[in-house]
Amino acid sequence: MSPAGGAASLNVAIAHKDHLRASGEPLRALEDLRLTLPAGQAGAVVGPSGCGKTTLLRLIAGLDRDYVGHIALPAHGRLGMVFQEPRLLPWRSVADNIAIAAPEASSPEIAALLDDLALTEHATHFPGELSLGLARRAALARALAVKPDLLLLDEPLVSLDAALARGLRDKIAALIDEKRITTLIVTHDLAEAIALADRVFLLSPRPARIVATLDIPAPRARLTKASGLALETQAREALLRSQ
Amino acid sequence: MIRVASLAALLALWQIGAVFSDPRRLPGPLAVFETILAEAASGALFSNLAITLARVAASFALAMSLGTAIGYLMGRNRLADRLLDPWLVALLNLPALVVIVLAYVWAGLTEIAAISAVALNKLPNAVVVIREGARALDPQLQEMAEAFRFPPGARMRHLVLPQLAPYLAAATRSGLSLVWKVVLVVELLGRSNGVGFEINMAFQLFDMKLLLAYALPFVALMLGVETLLVQPLERYVARWRRGVA
Ligand SMILES: Nc1ncnc2c1ncn2[C@@H]1O[C@H](COP(=O)(O)OP(=O)(O)OP(=O)(O)O)[C@@H](O)[C@H]1O
Ligand SMILES: [Mg+2]
């Protein structure tokens, strides 16, 4: 493996993935979906609702092995995952939720993480006492605490109000820049994807395949508003062409 | 407070009933209390209570641990569920008396036969309740635990047991009352000590004072176990729920 990390990229090549409907008929969720994400970069998967984004993340996470194709994870493959719902253990405090998922993390490390995400005063609260935005942040803290080689985020900003979403988006962007974890973010918001990622994958409606890949030359903090808008237009044109 | 008042009302009703009936049929609370004191002074009351309580504890522990293991297996594994379900239905519908007599016939009038017979009476109920709990485990949390590679021990402690806790509590409550009732029958039929044996003696002598002098302290004891042990434990495991007093 080269120290540059080229061999440790995330490689996904799925021929197809079918769900079984309750009626017993198969439902094709993904078809001929290929993507490559270099180590240490953030990729964003953008697609319409119900196209198969969560399905894709579950395959990459190894939670569903019933598909045709091949997935190569970054080296070691320690996984941090933020599900579409927070999925915290309701009977454990925020701090315990993190400590249980990340037994190797020391308590100063967890405290620093809680501080990073402005959760310190909620450390002893139970998830039922948190707002959705707080619970999402706690889920993010849990995923980061395991010091993942691969971070998977499923719509981390959905259903938060605009200000809160922007705050959390900037926080995630800062964490990506600081920790350089290979990250795959699922979203249906193009602007959000462009603001967070090094590379954006545009998905077709179900069955999902990649219709265009967009490399962001100056990602995150270095991205100017104008070039962000230009990229957005470029992406929309690519989506239109694919239809 | 309300519980105390309702207990006092029961006592009053008993006293009134006793006044109007033959003391040999229904002795008053005072007479029974005197008998309790006499039995306590001789030490017989405590040794019999202790023996019965030990039998309750042993058979309850046996039934709950076996029942939890089997119920969990049946709730999580479809093959096990289909294999064991007919046995479960049979055991559920077997009268307690049949189980007890069969145990005594096959294993003799021994302590092991007595405790197994009681446990066997409680077992199917524990299995049914825990199986329901195991079926209701949240698949989203299972998936989360899988993604974060929870080791089996952590999965049990932090994922499974907290979700089973209400079912364990329900099985414990219904279980304790069932077990102690069956223990008395088992003692009556095949043991030479314990509350059930003493009640049988009282019945043969038609001594209602003695009968009540054993029955009431035991009911009080089980009430104490329920309020001082089971209920606080229930509150403790449910402390994360909002709005629980
Ligand atoms: N377990 C399942 N069984 C059957 N069908 C499923 C299952 N999971 C997902 N599907 C179907 O597969 C398709 C893709 O679902 P998926 O959850 O991956 O979409 P998504 O892109 O994440 O949507 P959203 O943006 O709304 O979260 C949908 O049509 C969905 O109905
Ligand atoms: Mg989804």
How many β-strand runs of chain A? Answer: 9
* Uncertain stretches of 5 or more adjacent residues of chain A: 1-7
**Fraction of residues in β-strands of chain B:** under 5%
The largest sheet of chain B, given as strand count, sense and whether it forms a barrel, is:
none
Residue stretches of chain B low in confidence (pLDDT < 50, at least 5 long) are none
Tell me the CATH architecture of chain B.
Orthogonal Bundle
Multimeric state of these chains?
Answer: heterodimer
Write the CATH architecture name of the largest domain in chain A: 3-Layer(aba) Sandwich
How far apart lie the N and C ends of chain B?
A: 17 Å
Number of helices of chain B: 10
User: What's the CATH class of chain B, please?
Assistant: Mainly Alpha
Note the beta-strand portion of chain A: 15-25%
Shape of chain B: globular
* CATH level-3 fold name of the largest domain in chain A: Rossmann fold
The arrangement of helices and strands of chain B along the chain is: HHHHHHHHHH
